[in-house]
C-alpha cells in the first residue's frame, strides 16, 4: 500500500510525437497516445510492454528528458519540464543504455557523482552490495553489459533519491546479479522510495511490481496489481493448459471439444490447452478410464502475467 495518498509521480493523458517522417508524408508519428499512470512511495510500479510500446519515452518525459506534446506530469509536485536543481537531486535515473562515460572507471565515477549531492549514499556500501569491486579498475567501455547495468544502478542510487526510475534494470544480468538487484529494489521500496521501472520481461514484473500498467502502441490497455490482472476473465485470458505424463503416442483429442488443442510436446508428455472447464477435465478423465490409462503426473498450469499481456497487447499498431 502507498505510504501517502499523493502520488510521487502522476501522469495524465501523456502525448508524445516524433518526426516529421518521410514515409508518413511529413506527418508526425505519435508514439505515446494518452498514457495515464500514478506511482506511489513505498511501491514498485511497472510499465510493461513490448519493445517500441512507448515505455522508455514515457519515463523520459516523466523525468523531463523529453518534452511532451500533451498531457500533464507531476513529479514530486513539480512539472519535470521546468524542473529545478533541487527536484533533480531528489530523483534517481537509470537509463537503458547506461549513459556512462566510457573512459571512466566505476568507483572513481561513483565518487565523482556522489560529490554532486548534499547527502549521498555511501559509495563503498553500493560497491560492496552490487559486487562492483571485482571490476573496479576496469574502464566502463570494457565492462560486460551486466557489469555496466550494476554501475548504472549504483549511479542512480548514490544521490539518495526519493523517486527512482529504472529502464529495463535486469537487462544483461546473470542470474546471481539479477537476484542481487531484485533484493535491493525490494529493500528500497520497503524504505519508502517510489520506484518506477519499465520492462518487457514479464517474469520481472510478476516478481517485483506492486502495481502494473500494460502499454501497447503508446496506450495504457490495462492496469492493476498482479493478482487483479490475473483475475481478469476475458475469453482470451481464460485459456488454461493442463499437462499430463503417460505413454507415448496417445490421441486424446477425440474426447475433447474443437476449441481444445492437445499436443504431445515430447514422448509421453502432453499439453491440453484451451478454455478448459470442469466438464473437459471430466471428459479427459473418462477417456483415460476407457483406455485403461493411468497418467504418471497431471498439472493444471495457473494463469500468468504473460497470458494477460499476450491477450491485451499486439492488437494495434502505433
Describe it for me?
- 29% of the residues lie in helices and 26% in strands.
- By secondary structure, it is of the alpha/beta class.
- The protein has two domains: 9-231, Rossmann fold (3-Layer(aba) Sandwich), CATH 3.40.50; 236-312, Alpha-Beta Plaits (2-Layer Sandwich), CATH 3.30.70.
- Strands 5-6-7-3-8-9 form a six-stranded mixed β-sheet, with helices on both faces. The chain has a four-stranded antiparallel β-sheet with strand order 11-12-10-13, with no helix packed on it.
Give the strand line-up of the largest sheet: 5-6-7-3-8-9
CATH architecture of the largest domain: 3-Layer(aba) Sandwich
CATH topology of the largest domain: Rossmann fold
The succession of helices and strands, N to C, reads: EEEHEHEHHHEHEHEEHEEEHEH
What descriptors fit this protein?
318 residues, alpha/beta, Rossmann fold, Alpha-Beta Plaits, 2 domains, 4-stranded antiparallel β-sheet, 10 helices, 13 strands
Condensed summary:
This protein has 318 residues and is of the alpha/beta class.
Chain-wise SSE layout:
Elements: E1 9-18, E2 29-39, E3 43-48, H1 55-63, E4 70-75, H2 85-88, E5 91-94, H3 106-114, H4 123-129, H5 145-157, E6 163-167, H6 175-190, E7 194-199, H7 202-208, E8 211-216, E9 219-224, H8 226-231, E10 240-245, E11 261-266, E12 269-274, H9 278-291, E13 297-301, H10 305-312
Parallel strand pairs: 3-7, 3-8, 5-6, 6-7
Antiparallel strand pairs: 1-2, 1-4, 8-9, 10-12, 10-13, 11-12
